[in-house]
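DATA CLASS: polypeptide
GOAL: derive structure tokens

***
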Amino acid sequence: MNPLKTMKKTFLAFAAGAAMVMQPVAFTTVAHAQEAPSTLHLDGLSRTPTEAANNSLFDPNDAVLLLLDHQTGLFQTVNDIEIAELRRNTVALAKIAEQANIPIIYTASEPDGSNGPIMEELPAAMPSAQYVARQGEVSSWDNADFVAAVEATGRKTLVIAGVWTSVCVAFPALQAHAEGYDVFVVMDASGDVSKMASDVALQRMVAEGIVPVTTNTILSETHRTWNRPDAAEWGALYGEVSPAYRAVTESYNRAQEAATKAE
């Protein structure tokens, strides 16, 4: 096949997906994820990665997404990231997990008290997620039901985001890692009372072997290749993580329109 035609076909799939960002979210990522084979992120690669190369990246097939205490009361204390960005990245992270059929478990700290309810747009973005109520525990890893839910997935890689980073994220991340889990912390879907609090927590976690990442890192390593049948859905997710990135699609579509008119 002509490489140029292949590239154009792939980009068109991306363009169609990113264009969906401008419309109400209606595409059924969950259904598609359930139908897709678990190796979809690898099947489209032109080179089969060695075990060492594959292990160097995040493995969506072994992952569980833990969203901890994304509550509107706690948001009012966050000072190390813009709240709009925090909310957008958290929703995007949930949609990435839904698209890749990664189990999602979420929880809240005293949601009927001053910490406030879970951000209202989050549950709608992750219809397959499991909510686990806590009984006052600060660390979700100290709650028996929460840990049981994680263990029930049979997976050993935890992707964690939450508010506050230095407490609600760091405590369970450190505890789970000590018990043998591989832990990735999504820093831009987490927030803390100050940059110092976040920086100190990050240093503490990294020193113990926990891996810091961003939402875009999780998206790209889960997606892995444009050579896959659900490329359009992944294109839409890139537009949500980086809204300005949709300008790439807009420019390309306008160029195609101009080229068609000139023919």
